[in-house]
Design goal:
The structure holds two protein chains of two kinds. Chain A is built from twelve helices and 14 strands. By secondary structure, chain A is an alpha/beta fold. Chain A has two domains: 192 residues, Rossmann fold (3-Layer(aba) Sandwich), CATH 3.40.50; 129 residues, Rossmann fold.
């Protein structure tokens, strides 16, 4: 076992799949960088350098730099997938989905159903999500609720390097279009990650903490905050189940319901804007199917219904923090 | 050297010529029959007729194999037929039957048969070109020697997806062919209003690919232009744009009162820009084919369509459980 960061694991996983499957290729803006320039090749290797070195091993035929035209290359990934390739395509910031969403929700997500099961789009769209970078309203959103609402898409939101490797391997081998949403604050998150390939099934939540008094469901970067709160409160005698669903579509409903059946209390933490979020979705799930287990009203911790602000003081206020989560836990414990 | 069956000025063999006629006439009769069935209430939703544009789908798809790809439009019946989709299964699909080409889950605007290289009719104007670029990328990556053709209308020719796709196809030097069927109308708005340039094909040069304008009512002209574009694509010569100028004999949708068209316009165009009439006149005048041979094909088509419609009317509707099928492979 080696300690690896998410950034390292992304390239390692993609390279492993590309070595074994000639139909897999990576495409996006500056996934290599340097094309048409007089300077260095592989100048970017992805916006975070997460793909550095791939072009050296696989060449420009399989690590394809694209013009800044998301409709063309995201749509082309759909067309390539429908005709026998297995594209991995990098959208960079998820916020850019606005200019290519038709190709995702109207085209690739509907092929299998609309064409009676005779077509499919096995591809992965990698995109960065999340606030905290002082990047402003158009580079900081979550957007997973909108994507989770689309039948035909699968949505993955890993919180750690081990899960990134297992879930990305599953995503690349999956025969449906997968949105793989990587929180930009987690690129340097590290943990023990095996060198050999392994896969983690979609729709299986992970318990990152186990307790009996309260269930905290948290996604992506929020998992780490929920864990910190759980650790702090455990010292005060309040123990929490922290559940990381890992994929929002499919969603491991049973894991959440089973936990609430024991704890009787639910806090849902989601960095997305609160309306029509995973927080409302999971709250509704438990209200419908776990109501009799509840000993107190559900509490949601989400971003407010505003765009992501630029000013650091405001952005910090926007993002749910540990104090917000702790207050929510105390509220469900005391009501 | 010209073969025995091929006169020196014959653009193709008699067999190929007759097959082309069969395709064009099948499309036209298909559309007339769907019109009737729609009026009779046998087709849910709405349909868009390809009546009048048959020479384009036929002249292009003549050069394609099942391993070549096409993407289509909301007006896609003609492209499906020309690419080899089963006509009986198409009727069933349009009539929403569970044994239809897409199990009754697609309908007129969403017919696909990937096994024939037909990636799908597309109800989003400008939706198909990016997908076709991707199919061309597959052909290049897998070195199949295949090409990928996107059919778009004059309306779609203004979409950003189209411009992005043309640029990307040039950047990667893909075997993509962008066919623009300029039928004069985007819904109820004229092309002279909606297309800023009066020359869709002329835009291609700015993207770095050849652009050719062709009379869409002249099957032989379309066939010749397509031949060159497909050969260029197969040889790795990159993308081509083709603008085929034509009219549509029906409305935007079947049932469109077409108040935006001048009085007598359609009747005049049925005479002046009728690709099938032009074809018959040409092949008979040149003595390439006999009227009798063509009429025999007509009779076969009508019988085939009668059978297709009768079979479709008896085909089962999807069962309630089918609502939930084929959303995902596994979930």
């Amino acid at each position: 076992m080696t300690i690896k960061t998410i950034r390292e694991v992304l390239a390692e996983t993609i390279a492993a799949e590309m070595r074994t499957d000639p139909d897999v290729f990576l495409m996006g803006e500056d996934v290599s960088g340097g094309a048409g320039c007089d300077g260095e090749d592989d100048a970017f290797g992805g916006a975070f350098g997460q793909y550095k070195g791939l072009v050296k091993e696989f060449g420009r035929e399989r690590i394809i730099d694209t013009p800044i035209t998301e409709s063309a290359f995201i749509g082309a990934a759909g067309g390539a997938a429908a005709t026998g390739m297995r594209p991995i395509v990098d959208l960079m910031f998820v916020d850019f989905i606005g200019v290519c969403f038709d190709q995702i929700f109207n085209q690739m997500a509907k092929f299998r159903y609309m064409f009676g099961g005779k077509s499919q789009a096995p591809l992965v769209i990698l995109a960065m999500v999340g606030a905290g970078w002082r990047a402003g309203a158009q580079h900081s959103q979550m957007l997973h609720p909108m994507l989770t609402a689309v039948p035909g898409l699968k949505v993955v939101m890993p919180s750690n390097a081990y899960d990134v490797k297992g879930l990305l391997t599953t995503a690349i081998r999956d025969n449906d279009p997968v949105m793989f949403l990587q929180h930009k604050l987690l690129f340097e998150q590290s943990c023990e990650v095996p060198d050999e390939p392994y896969s983690i099934p979609f729709g299986e939540a992970a318990y990152t903490r186990q307790g009996k008094d309260v269930t905290i469901v948290a996604l992506s970067a929020m998992v780490h905050k929920a864990n910190a709160v759980a650790d702090k409160l455990a010292k005060q005698g309040i123990t929490a189940d922290v559940i990381d669903p890992r994929t929002t579509s499919p969603l491991d409903e049973e894991a959440i319901l089973e936990s609430v059946e024991v704890t009787g209390r639910l806090v849902v933490v989601d960095e997305a804007n609160g309306r029509c979020s995973m927080a409302t979705d999971i709250s509704s799930l438990v209200a419908e199917r776990g109501f009799s287990s509840l000993r107190s009203p559900i509490v949601k911790v989400t971003a407010p219904h505003t765009p992501v602000p630029f000013a650091p003081g405001l952005e910090d206020l926007y993002i749910p923090d540990e104090a917000d989560i702790e207050a929510a836990v105390m509220k469900v414990m005391n009501s | 050297m010209a073969s025995k069956n091929t006169g020196t000025n014959m653009p193709m063999s008699k067999k190929e010529m007759l097959a082309s006629y069969r395709t064009m006439k099948t499309i036209r009769e298909f559309e007339w029959r769907m019109f009737k069935e729609f009026e009779a209430g046998n087709i849910p939703g709405f349909i868009h007729s390809y009546d009048g544009q048959e020479a384009i789908a036929t002249g292009i798809c003549n050069h394609l194999l099942d391993t070549d790809f096409i993407g289509s439009t909301h007006r896609g019946h003609g492209h499906c037929i020309a690419k080899g989709c089963d006509v009986g299964d198409m009727v069933k699909e349009i009539m929403a039957r569970s044994t239809g080409l897409c199990k009754g889950k697609g309908g007129s605007m969403h017919i696909a048969d990937v096994s024939k290289g037909m990636l799908g009719a597309n109800a989003i104007v400008g939706g198909a070109p990016p997908l076709c670029v991707g199919a061309a990328l597959t052909a290049k990556s897998k070195k199949t020697g295949g090409v990928s053709v996107s059919f778009s209308g004059d309306g779609a020719s203004n979409q950003g997806t189209v411009f992005e796709s043309m640029n990307f196809a040039v950047v990667l030097q893909l075997p993509a062919i962008f066919v623009y069927e300029n039928n004069g109308y985007g819904e109820a708005t004229g092309v002279s209003y909606a297309v800023g340039s009066d020359d869709i094909a002329g835009r291609a040069a700015a993207f770095g690919m050849p652009g050719i304008k062709v009379d869409g009512a002249d099957f032989f002209a379309v066939h010749a232009v397509a031949k060159e574009a497909v050969e260029r694509g197969r040889k790795g010569g990159g993308p081509t744009a083709i603008e085929a100028v034509i009219t549509r004999f029906d409305g935007h949708f079947v049932g469109d009162p077409q108040l935006y068209r001048a009085k007598g316009e359609i009747e005049r165009l049925r005479e002046e820009q009728n690709c099938i009439k032009n074809f018959i006149e040409k092949v008979c005048a040149e003595k390439w084919l006999t009227l009798k041979a063509l009429q025999a094909v007509d009779a076969e088509i009508l019988t085939m369509l009668d059978t297709a419609v009768a079979t479709a009317m008896l085909a089962p509707h999807p069962a309630p459980a089918e609502l939930y099928e084929n959303v995902y492979e596994t979930y």
